[in-house]
Automatic annotation (TrEMBL):
The lineage of its organism: Bacteria, Pseudomonadati, Bacteroidota, Flavobacteriia, Flavobacteriales. Signal peptide: none annotated. The keyword Acyltransferase applies. Pfam families: ACP_syn_III_C. This is 3-Oxoacyl-(Acyl-carrier-protein (ACP)) synthase III domain-containing protein. GO terms for molecular function: acyltransferase activity. InterPro entries: ACP_syn_III_C, Thiolase-like. Transmembrane segments: none annotated. The keyword Zinc does not apply. It comes from the Bacteria. Residues 287-365 form the Beta-ketoacyl-[acyl-carrier-protein] synthase III C-terminal domain. Keywords: Acyltransferase, Transferase. One of its GO terms (biological process) is secondary metabolite biosynthetic process. It comes from Fluviicola taffensis (strain DSM 16823 / NCIMB 13979 / RW262).
Length: 382
């Protein structure tokens, strides 16, 4: 069986409501203990984010579900020919914030598309890498000839779990945040970083006839969970031995008192591992494919914060893979951290920017701190 080439032929995105500026955030997320956050200014200075999007109104009422946002992005793929949706034979959806535990996120997206056919739907779980896993599944399905037209997505809707009533009173001292920015990477830090939204790719076994396409040359994923304990987690509590205690093992009152459903992060592990592990693996992948930094026209790194930009740059340089900053592309400042959707939103903006030329290459890098997973992909404009 001969393997087919796989192309991203179209991209689309859906961002809910109007952008929310830094000064407007607490109007949506609320005040903890009726007091403005002392850490917000410091965290925002470090992460460099200026705007983000929330699928909620100021009173906390939801305006969109996660699945609905993905479906609206999918519909944008077919604005010129809505009936073409019927020809899709696979939908692969990644997110870390499904609207419910069951049914799966993917089938809920499919449920918003009643005019589509009875097709295969998959829902890779995880955090930031889940969107890339969704893309890789679609990529492998088309490459093997099992599908001819597939949609993959990355999306998040976390604004409701960031609201003030979901968080404990801030206990970090302002001077601690000033002395060590990593101390801001805890529950409160995530409130000023995460954003809602969805974006999608159309993957096909033939190039587009209407414009450029992105050939997916390879996708590489790796996990270090066999070596390192959990770093970011939700619906669990971290024990002294590094294991996680599930929300299912807590009494209802304990879940409230310990804010078990809040997102938490082990900042010491983040500092030690998040950049080094994945980009060392990337060096190996480049060596296997006889690639150098000169073979990268555009570098799209998923970053939760611009705090990591110079650290990634330094690690690449240490590995002999220095990529000049003028070849980097990010929309973190304008879109916020949309987790599994961030890399999709970056590709979508670059793809539709008019900046790409035939022969350009694009390196995608998505780190995930939950238990240190990484996915990299290499694309060629054609």
């Amino acid at each position: 069986m001969s393997l087919k080439e796989v192309y991203i032929t179209r991209t689309a995105a859906f961002l809910p409501n109007n952008p929310v500026s830094n000064d407007e955030m607490e109007g949506y997320l609320g005040l903890i203990n009726d007091r403005a956050s002392k850490s917000r200014r410091i965290v925002l200075r470090n992460n460099g984010i200026k705007n983000r999007y929330y699928a909620i109104q100021k009173d906390g009422t939801a305006t969109h579900t996660n699945a609905e946002m993905v479906s609206l992005a999918i519909r944008k793929l077919f604005e010129k020919n809505p009936t073409e949706l019927k020809s899709v034979d696979l939908i692969s959806c990644g997110t870390s914030s499904p609207d419910q535990m069951m049914p799966s996120h993917g089938v809920m997206v499919h449920g918003w598309l009643p005019e589509s056919g009875n097709i295969e739907v998959v829902s890779p779980s995880g955090v930031c890498c889940s969107g890339m896993h969704a893309m890789k599944y679609a990529f492998m399905s088309i490459k093997s000839g099992m599908s001819t037209k597939a949609i993959s997505s990355g999306s998040e809707r976390l604004s409701r779990v960031l609201s003030a009533d979901k968080f404990e009173l801030e206990i970090q001292k302002l001077n601690e945040l000033e002395e060590n920015p990593y101390l801001s990477f805890d529950k409160d830090f995530l409130r000023w970083m995460l954003s809602d939204g969805a974006a999608v790719f159309m993957l096909e076994d033939k190039k587009s006839t209407d414009g450029p396409s992105l050939r997916i040359d390879w996708v590489e994923g790796i996990s270090f969970a066999n070596e390192i304990e959990s770093c970011m987690y939700m619906a669990a509590e971290k024990m002294s031995d590094g294991t996680l205690k599930s929300y299912m093992d807590y009494e209802p009152q304990e879940m409230i008192e310990k804010s078990i459903l809040s997102i938490k992060q082990d900042v010491k592990l983040l500092d030690e591992h998040i950049v080094k592990l994945g980009f060392n693996k990337l060096k190996t992948k480049f060596e296997e494919n006889n690639l150098t930094n000169n073979d990268v026209t555009w570098f799209l790194p998923h970053m939760s914060s611009y705090f990591f930009e110079d650290k990634i740059y330094a690690q690449l340089a240490d590995n002999g893979m220095e990529i000049p900053k003028d070849r980097w592309f990010s929309n973190l400042a304008t879109h916020g951290n949309v987790g599994a959707g961030s890399i999709y939103l970056m590709v979508d903006e670059l793809f539709n920017s008019g900046k790409l030329k035939v022969g350009d290459t694009i390196l995608l890098a998505v780190p995930e701190s939950s238990r240190f997973s990484y996915v990299f992909a290499y694309l060629t404009v054609c």
